[in-house]
Structures are given as C-alpha cells and as structure tokens.
Design a protein that fits this description.
Layout: H1 12-58, H2 62-72, E1 83-89, E2 92-105, E3 108-119
Helix pairs in contact: 1-2
Length: 127
C-alpha cells in the first residue's frame, strides 16, 4: 500500500470553517440591524392607515391625523425630521410620511427610505 502525502491540505478545513462562521456572523448582524427597522415600518404603516380611517370616520380635521402620527412617531423609530402631511381629497383623508433612516452595516451605511401614503377607506367617510 502506498501512503499519500497530504501536506498541502493541512488547515484547509479550518479555513473553510472560519469563512463560513464569518459569513454566518455577518448575515446575523445584518438581520439584527435591518429586521427591527422593517418591522417598525410595517407597524407604522398600519398605524397610519388606522389614523386615516379614524379621522375620516369621526369627521376630524386633517390636522388631527397629522398630530396623532407626530405623537406616535418616536415610539416607532421615526426620526424627528420626518415629513408628515395630511390632506383631504374626494372626501377621503390621505396621510403621507417621508423620512430617511441610516442603518449601519459592516463597512456600509444603508439609507432606508420610507415614503408611504395611507388613504382612508371610502365607506368610512362622513358626509
């Protein structure tokens, strides 16, 4: 039987393991930074829809919806410089929120741009 020398393969699996662990760590860190921002944005969109519907159903002025969103903004991670506007078009209330939120990633800063408009449901409007 012949013995083969594998001196050139020493440490190869250790390096592959470290590379895989590094990639997994980066993916977990990115998820840790990004998922909460996306979740808060999703929940804030729901709040925007709720406030637009309540404003239309109760006959409140458009400023009420804008004020409610401005009060709730810090709780949802919305920066203080966010642009919040509310208008009434065709007996429906429209609220729009715009902001840019920087997300720190390894070696890169992602600029998350939030721009969402919520319109009240037509059947909830008061005449």
């Amino acid at each position: 039987m012949k013995k083969f020398s594998r001196t050139n393969e020493l440490g190869g699996s250790r390096l592959n393991f470290l590379i895989v662990v590094l990639i997994i760590a980066i993916v977990v860190y990115v998820g840790y930074q990004v998922v909460p921002v996306f979740y808060q944005s999703f929940v804030f969109k729901d709040l925007m829809q709720h406030d637009a519907d309540v404003c239309a159903a109760q006959g409140y002025p458009t400023s009420w919806a804008k004020d409610q969103l401005a009060k709730s903004a810090p709780e949802y991670g919305v920066p203080p410089d966010a642009v919040i506007s509310a208008t009434q078009q065709d007996s429906r209330i429209e609220v729009r929120v715009q902001f840019v939120l920087p997300i720190q990633l390894p070696g890169y800063t992602y600029q998350y741009e939030f721009d969402h408009t919520a319109r009240s449901t037509a059947f909830l409007t008061t005449k």
